[in-house]
């Protein structure tokens, strides 16, 4: 039995996360405020805010989680360096993918979970959302440095755990951690050698 849009809403309700539901497009939108002193990430408006979109596709056989318009490369002179950084990030976080829109030059993070006929569980959704938040916080300094200088410097990765987190971020990261963390979902999807990732 494939996963339904109602299943996704139920998972969000069970975890008490606030979201906007767009029934016609089968999309959930979730906003996460970040602690400004503990992340370099800023959205297009300059705020430490991450929007996460959850979309059901292929008649419930695929769930995609993404942070739309994560980075805008339209005015970037160092796109090649950013693409190199994105490729190396994908190698470190195996669930993470990058999409680059060739028309708008917007680079976004996403995780796609192929379900086929199997139903999704809430733990998978929580881990995917947490993966997006972790990747943005951890790798934003690397991507921004590549955008600004044309150099890829992985010494800029944020490795330490933040001391404070907004409630919704804490809730989704705790849910993902309780479910076994990102390494568990990577193993579920066939990568048993994936390293554990901490936020």
Overview of the structural elements:
- With 199 residues, the protein is of the alpha+beta class.
- It has one domain (5-181): Yope Regulator, Chain: A (2-Layer Sandwich).
- It is built from five helices and six strands, in the order H-E-E-E-E-H-E-E-H-H-H.
- The chain has helices spanning 5-14, 79-92, 122-149, 167-178, 181-188, and strands at 20-22, 27-33, 49-57, 62-72, 97-100, 106-114.
- A hairpin with a 4-residue loop joins strand 1 and strand 2.
- Mean pLDDT is 84; it is low at 185-199.
List the helices and strands and how they pair.
Layout: H1 5-14, E1 20-22, E2 27-33, E3 49-57, E4 62-72, H2 79-92, E5 97-100, E6 106-114, H3 122-149, H4 167-178, H5 181-188
Antiparallel strand pairs: 1-2, 2-3, 3-4, 4-6, 5-6
Helix pairs in contact: 2-3, 3-4
Supply the key terms.
36% helix, globular, alpha+beta, 199 residues, disordered C terminus, six-stranded antiparallel sheet, Yope Regulator, Chain: A
């Amino acid at each position: 039995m494939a996963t339904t849009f109602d299943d996704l809403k139920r998972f969000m309700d069970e975890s008490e996360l606030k979201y906007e539901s767009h029934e016609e497009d089968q999309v959930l939108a979730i906003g996460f405020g970040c602690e400004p002193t503990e992340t370099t990430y800023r959205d297009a408006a300059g705020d430490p805010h991450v929007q996460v979109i959850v979309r059901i596709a292929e008649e419930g056989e695929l769930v995609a989680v993404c942070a739309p318009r994560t980075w805008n490369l339209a005015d970037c002179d160092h796109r090649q360096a950013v693409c190199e950084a994105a490729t190396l990030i994908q190698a470190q976080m195996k669930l993470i993918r990058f999409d680059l829109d060739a028309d708008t030059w917007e680079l976004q993070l996403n995780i796609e979970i192929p379900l086929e006929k199997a139903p999704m569980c809430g733990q998978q959704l929580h881990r995917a959302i947490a993966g997006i938040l972790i990747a943005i916080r951890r790798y934003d300094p690397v991507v921004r440095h590549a955008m600004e200088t044309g150099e890829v410097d992985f010494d800029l990765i944020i490795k330490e755990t933040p001391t404070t987190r907004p409630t919704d971020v804490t809730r989704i990261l705790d849910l993902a951690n309780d479910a076994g963390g990102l390494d568990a979902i990577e193993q579920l999807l066939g990568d048993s050698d994936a390293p554990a990732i901490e936020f």
